[in-house]
Amino acid sequence: MNQTSIFDVEKGYKFWSRGQKGDFLLSFVALSQILLSAIQGAMIAMRFSDETSSQVRISMSIITIIIAVPVLIKRKTRLVIATYFAALAVYLFHVVCYPDTIVYWHSEAFKFTFPISIPSALCIIAIKDKNIFNYVLKIIAYLTGALCLLYGMRVLMGTYDLGFSYNQGFGYMLLFPILVLYYQRKWYSLLISAILFLFLLLYGARGPVLSIAIFFVYVFISKKKYLLLVVTLVAITTIIPLLNSTLESQGLSSRTLELYLSGEIDAGNGRDAINDQIEKGIQENPYGWGLFGDRVITHGANNAHNFIREILAEFGLYLGSMVLLFFLYQIVKRFIKVKGEDRDLYFLFFCACFIPTLVSGSYLTNTYFSLFIGIMFFLPHFYNKRQMNKYKVIGNSKALVSNYRRLYE
Predict the structure, then answer these.
(1) SS3 content of the chain, % helix, strand, coil (to 5)
(2) Nearest-angstrom CA–CA distance, 373 and 233
(3) CA-to-CA separations, 233 to 57, 216, 220, 282, 382, in angstroms, rounded
(4) The dihedral of CA 40, 160, 213, 362: what is its sign?
(5) Beta-carbon neighbour count of residue 39 at 10 Å?
(6) Spatial separation of the C-alpha atoms in residues 164 and 7, rounded to whole Å
(7) How does DSSP classify residue 101?
(8) What is the pLDDT of residue 163?
(9) 312, 320 in Cβ contact below 8 A?
(10) Per-position DSSP letters for 129-186, written without gaps between them
(11) Phi, psi of 138, deg, nearest 5
């Protein structure tokens, strides 16, 4: 194989010629949400209004999903029907029992969750060949990374104005390409990943850095390189002041590094007031406010910006705690079930898609979160008994490990 090939057209052609166009389509439709998110951010940087850029992204997302609908329904007819029947039942239940939430169902669920998030998760679940999924993920990561490089360079040259000292959306645009290209571990992918990470430090928020740090630590621990992890962390801690001063000498600044050096890396940034409001609402109604209940508590001003508080606000202190424990159990259970490099991929999506919901946004409208839900069902599927018999590898779990790394060589 040509080691300098980035997209490996020959491998893609082999997949396509084997008649697996459906897996290509489903993978692209689901993972295109990563690229479309970056396109939306770039449009905002080019001074398109938030509403216009959002509408463009939503329209492009729906168009791609419509294209995939025939394949999705053919493969998962009962699952699609059951999912949307359940979603409709939940909506009608809220119409009767939680009427205050309906305005947010109409403005958010019908705009994002139903037409984009749910189909994206279902598309991943319907994929049969994980090698094709990994191949498409690599392509999407490079395309998104190229767009982010262009964006970052334009900001650096002063063509685009962030408007603030940092841009949270730009930070999350960078998250997937940084992680995927880092994991590819080719010299060119590591170089691109490093440049994107520098842009993240310069212009992004702290949330994406947290996700990257967790994945970085996981990689060392999974390889049992504990001493190297300690040495690396000490080296990074030592380098940070030097990096910050070097940036300042060039007329640049990093809000993340400045917060770290000032001991305020965990500063609330206005979230404390939201947290207090949500916690007060939970105490006032420990039985829950229904889905989108955090919006009801804040009178539509904000969402909880935290997955745990959002669940507790919606389901109540008692049922919400059980929901959180059950979800945590499922995450860990499925993480343990998958093996080798599939486990790395699972954890990559955990860091890129779930960790951000702990510090920003809402899981109900976050399409990245829906990708993680899809991954939770998609990867463990290859480790059940039927699939083990299908691939004739019972008794040899190593043979079940995906060709994820090999796809990147």
Answers:
(1) 75, 0, 25
(2) 31
(3) 38, 10, 11, 39, 35
(4) negative
(5) 18
(6) 36
(7) G
(8) 61
(9) yes
(10) -HHHHHHHHHHHHHHHHHHHHHHHHHHHTTSS--SSS--HHHHHHHHHHHHHHHHH--
(11) -65, -45
Scan for tokens 């801690």, then name that residue.
237
Asked whether the CA dihedral 92, 61, 22, 67 is positive or negative, the reply is positive
**Residue 97: is it exposed, middle or buried by C-beta count within 10 angstroms (0-12/13-18/19+)?**
exposed
The structure tokens listed for 297 are 């508590």
Are 177 and 140 within 8 A, CB to CB?
Answer: no
Q: What is the pLDDT of residue 252?
A: 86
Q: Name the nearest CA neighbour of 202 among 170, 159, 249.
A: 170
CB 125 within 8 A of CB 76: yes
What's the one-letter identity of residue 1?
M
Closest C-alpha to 178, from 212, 133, 223, 136 = 212
Q: Per-residue pLDDT averaged across 260-285, rounded?
A: 85
Instruction: Return the structure tokens found at 221.
Output: 């621990």
Write down the mean pLDDT value for the chain.
87
pTM of the full predicted structure? Answer: 0.89
| 49-70 per-position pLDDT tens digit | 888 988 999 999 999 999 999 9
The CA distance from 103 to 117, in Å, is 19
* φ and ψ at residue 359, rounded to 5 degrees: -125, -10
Residues in contact with 371: Cβ distance below 8 Å, sequence separation at least 6, in sequence order: 30, 31, 33, 34, 120, 121, 124, 349, 353
What's the one-letter identity of residue 247?
Answer: L
Given pLDDT bands bounded at 50, 70 and 90, which one contains residue 329? very high
Q: Among residues 19, 130, 22, which one has the least CA distance to residue 76?
A: 22
Q: Helices 21-45 and 168-184, interaxial angle, to 10°?
A: 140
Give the span between the Cα atoms of 199 and 195, in whole angstroms: 6
CA dihedral 144, 150, 156, 160 (to 10 degrees): -90
- CA pair distance 5, 7, nearest whole angstrom: 6
CB-count exposure of residue 327 (10 Å: 0-12, 13-18, 19+): middle
Q: Is 94 buried (19+), middle (13-18) or exposed (0-12) by CB count in 10 A? A: buried
Cα separation values, 390 from 131, 282, 380, 381, 395, Å: 16, 49, 15, 12, 13
